Q: What sequence folds into this?
Protein backbone atom coordinates (compact mmCIF):
# COMPACT_ATOMS: atom_id res chain seq x y z
CA UNK A 1 0.00 0.00 0.00
CA UNK A 2 1.43 3.41 -0.91
CA UNK A 3 2.44 5.39 2.19
CA UNK A 4 0.69 8.55 0.97
CA UNK A 5 -2.74 6.92 0.84
CA UNK A 6 -3.91 6.42 4.40
CA UNK A 7 -2.58 9.71 5.88
CA UNK A 8 -5.26 11.47 3.79
CA UNK A 9 -8.12 9.50 5.28
CA UNK A 10 -10.04 11.49 7.88
CA UNK A 11 -11.11 9.53 10.98
CA UNK A 12 -14.90 9.37 11.23
CA UNK A 13 -15.42 10.26 7.58
CA UNK A 14 -17.49 8.04 5.29
CA UNK A 15 -16.17 7.32 1.80
CA UNK A 16 -17.74 5.93 -1.33
CA UNK A 17 -15.46 3.85 -3.54
CA UNK A 18 -15.33 6.67 -6.10
CA UNK A 19 -13.98 9.06 -3.42
CA UNK A 20 -10.80 6.96 -3.29
CA UNK A 21 -10.03 7.62 -6.98
CA UNK A 22 -7.98 10.70 -6.01
CA UNK A 23 -5.38 8.34 -4.43
CA UNK A 24 -5.21 5.60 -7.04
CA UNK A 25 -6.22 4.58 -10.54
CA UNK A 26 -8.22 1.59 -9.26
CA UNK A 27 -10.36 2.76 -6.31
CA UNK A 28 -11.95 -0.68 -5.83
CA UNK A 29 -8.58 -2.37 -5.38
CA UNK A 30 -7.41 0.48 -3.14
CA UNK A 31 -10.53 0.08 -0.96
CA UNK A 32 -9.75 -3.64 -0.57
CA UNK A 33 -6.16 -2.86 0.44
CA UNK A 34 -7.28 -0.26 2.95
CA UNK A 35 -9.87 -2.68 4.34
CA UNK A 36 -7.29 -5.44 4.78
CA UNK A 37 -4.87 -2.94 6.33
CA UNK A 38 -7.48 -1.84 8.86
CA UNK A 39 -7.53 1.75 7.59
CA UNK A 40 -11.13 1.45 6.37
CA UNK A 41 -14.16 -0.50 7.55
CA UNK A 42 -17.07 -1.45 5.31
CA UNK A 43 -20.59 -0.15 5.95
CA UNK A 44 -22.17 -1.53 2.77
CA UNK A 45 -21.21 -2.35 -0.81
CA UNK A 46 -19.12 0.61 -1.98
CA UNK A 47 -19.48 2.50 1.33
CA UNK A 48 -16.65 2.65 3.86
CA UNK A 49 -15.51 4.67 6.84
CA UNK A 50 -12.18 5.54 8.38
CA UNK A 51 -12.62 4.63 12.05
CA UNK A 52 -11.88 7.24 14.67
CA UNK A 53 -9.87 5.91 17.59
CA UNK A 54 -11.03 5.94 21.18
CA UNK A 55 -9.73 4.27 24.30
CA UNK A 56 -12.46 1.63 23.79
CA UNK A 57 -11.48 0.87 20.21
CA UNK A 58 -12.58 2.08 16.77
CA UNK A 59 -15.58 4.42 16.73
CA UNK A 60 -18.03 4.23 13.81
CA UNK A 61 -19.26 7.43 12.15
CA UNK A 62 -22.48 9.09 13.25
CA UNK A 63 -25.73 8.58 11.35
CA UNK A 64 -25.55 12.00 9.67
CA UNK A 65 -22.12 11.23 8.14
CA UNK A 66 -23.35 7.84 6.90
CA UNK A 67 -26.51 9.34 5.39
CA UNK A 68 -24.65 12.25 3.78
CA UNK A 69 -22.33 9.83 1.96
CA UNK A 70 -25.06 7.32 1.09
CA UNK A 71 -27.61 9.86 -0.18
CA UNK A 72 -24.98 12.11 -1.72
CA UNK A 73 -25.95 15.40 -0.09
CA UNK A 74 -27.22 17.07 3.09
CA UNK A 75 -30.83 17.22 1.94
CA UNK A 76 -32.47 14.79 4.38
CA UNK A 77 -34.21 14.80 7.73
CA UNK A 78 -34.23 12.04 10.33
CA UNK A 79 -37.68 11.70 11.84
CA UNK A 80 -39.74 8.97 13.46
CA UNK A 81 -40.20 7.91 17.08
CA UNK A 82 -37.22 9.68 18.67
CA UNK A 83 -38.43 13.02 17.26
CA UNK A 84 -42.13 12.28 17.76
CA UNK A 85 -41.65 11.13 21.35
CA UNK A 86 -39.70 14.30 22.19
CA UNK A 87 -42.70 16.48 21.25
CA UNK A 88 -44.39 15.63 24.55
CA UNK A 89 -47.67 14.56 22.97
CA UNK A 90 -47.77 11.19 24.70
CA UNK A 91 -46.15 8.89 22.14
CA UNK A 92 -43.59 6.31 23.22
CA UNK A 93 -43.09 4.40 19.96
CA UNK A 94 -39.85 2.67 18.98
CA UNK A 95 -38.65 1.58 15.53
CA UNK A 96 -35.88 -0.84 14.74
CA UNK A 97 -34.78 1.48 11.94
CA UNK A 98 -34.25 5.22 11.58
CA UNK A 99 -36.87 6.94 9.39
CA UNK A 100 -35.18 9.29 6.94
CA UNK A 101 -36.92 11.59 4.46
CA UNK A 102 -34.92 12.64 1.43
CA UNK A 103 -35.37 13.58 -2.20
CA UNK A 104 -33.43 10.76 -3.87
CA UNK A 105 -33.97 7.25 -2.49
CA UNK A 106 -36.63 5.02 -1.00
CA UNK A 107 -36.25 1.65 0.64
CA UNK A 108 -34.76 -0.09 3.63
CA UNK A 109 -30.97 -0.14 3.83
CA UNK A 110 -28.55 -1.70 6.30
CA UNK A 111 -25.49 0.50 6.58
CA UNK A 112 -23.03 -0.99 9.01
CA UNK A 113 -24.95 -2.09 12.07
CA UNK A 114 -27.76 0.44 11.52
CA UNK A 115 -31.00 -0.01 9.61
CA UNK A 116 -32.40 3.02 7.76
CA UNK A 117 -35.88 3.38 6.24
CA UNK A 118 -35.50 5.98 3.48
CA UNK A 119 -38.53 7.66 1.93
CA UNK A 120 -38.66 10.10 -0.94
CA UNK A 121 -41.04 12.75 0.35
CA UNK A 122 -41.25 16.52 0.60
CA UNK A 123 -40.07 18.17 3.79
CA UNK A 124 -39.00 21.69 4.78
CA UNK A 125 -35.34 22.62 4.49
CA UNK A 126 -35.28 23.49 8.20
CA UNK A 127 -37.91 21.36 9.95
CA UNK A 128 -39.43 22.98 13.03
CA UNK A 129 -41.10 21.32 16.01
CA UNK A 130 -44.42 22.22 14.39
CA UNK A 131 -43.47 20.28 11.26
CA UNK A 132 -42.62 17.24 13.40
CA UNK A 133 -46.10 17.54 14.98
CA UNK A 134 -47.66 17.35 11.51
CA UNK A 135 -45.36 14.45 10.63
CA UNK A 136 -46.52 12.61 13.77
CA UNK A 137 -50.19 13.27 12.98
CA UNK A 138 -49.67 11.96 9.45
CA UNK A 139 -48.01 8.80 10.81
CA UNK A 140 -49.97 8.34 14.05
CA UNK A 141 -50.64 4.68 13.23
CA UNK A 142 -46.90 3.95 12.95
CA UNK A 143 -46.40 5.71 16.29
CA UNK A 144 -49.14 3.58 17.84
CA UNK A 145 -51.18 6.63 18.84
CA UNK A 146 -54.88 7.33 18.39
CA UNK A 147 -55.70 10.62 16.68
CA UNK A 148 -58.21 11.48 19.42
CA UNK A 149 -55.47 11.20 22.07
CA UNK A 150 -53.04 13.23 19.97
CA UNK A 151 -55.68 15.91 19.42
CA UNK A 152 -56.24 16.24 23.16
CA UNK A 153 -52.49 16.38 23.86
CA UNK A 154 -51.98 18.94 21.07
CA UNK A 155 -54.82 21.10 22.42
CA UNK A 156 -53.14 21.13 25.85
CA UNK A 157 -49.71 21.80 24.34
CA UNK A 158 -51.14 24.80 22.46
CA UNK A 159 -52.77 26.07 25.68
CA UNK A 160 -49.36 25.79 27.36
CA UNK A 161 -47.74 27.73 24.49
CA UNK A 162 -45.37 24.91 23.53
CA UNK A 163 -45.97 25.29 19.79
CA UNK A 164 -46.40 28.32 17.54
CA UNK A 165 -50.04 28.31 16.35
CA UNK A 166 -49.38 30.17 13.10
CA UNK A 167 -46.41 27.97 12.14
CA UNK A 168 -48.39 24.84 13.05
CA UNK A 169 -51.23 25.95 10.76
CA UNK A 170 -48.75 26.70 7.95
CA UNK A 171 -47.08 23.29 8.29
CA UNK A 172 -50.49 21.56 8.34
CA UNK A 173 -51.58 23.43 5.19
CA UNK A 174 -48.35 22.65 3.33
CA UNK A 175 -47.51 19.12 4.51
CA UNK A 176 -50.67 17.63 5.99
CA UNK A 177 -53.79 16.01 4.61
CA UNK A 178 -57.21 17.63 4.92
CA UNK A 179 -57.88 15.48 7.97
CA UNK A 180 -54.68 16.68 9.64
CA UNK A 181 -55.47 20.30 8.79
CA UNK A 182 -58.96 19.89 10.30
CA UNK A 183 -57.49 18.32 13.46
CA UNK A 184 -55.01 21.19 13.86
CA UNK A 185 -57.84 23.74 13.43
CA UNK A 186 -59.97 21.98 16.06
CA UNK A 187 -57.05 21.80 18.50
CA UNK A 188 -56.22 25.47 17.92
CA UNK A 189 -59.82 26.57 18.45
CA UNK A 190 -60.24 24.37 21.55
CA UNK A 191 -57.00 25.69 23.06
CA UNK A 192 -58.23 29.27 22.71
CA UNK A 193 -61.39 28.73 24.74
A:
Amino acid sequence: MPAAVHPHLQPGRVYRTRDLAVWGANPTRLAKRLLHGGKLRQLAQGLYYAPAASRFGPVPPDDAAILRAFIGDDSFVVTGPPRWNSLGLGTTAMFSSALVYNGKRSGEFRLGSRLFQLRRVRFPSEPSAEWFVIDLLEHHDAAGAALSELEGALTQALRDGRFDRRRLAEMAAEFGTRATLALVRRATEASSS
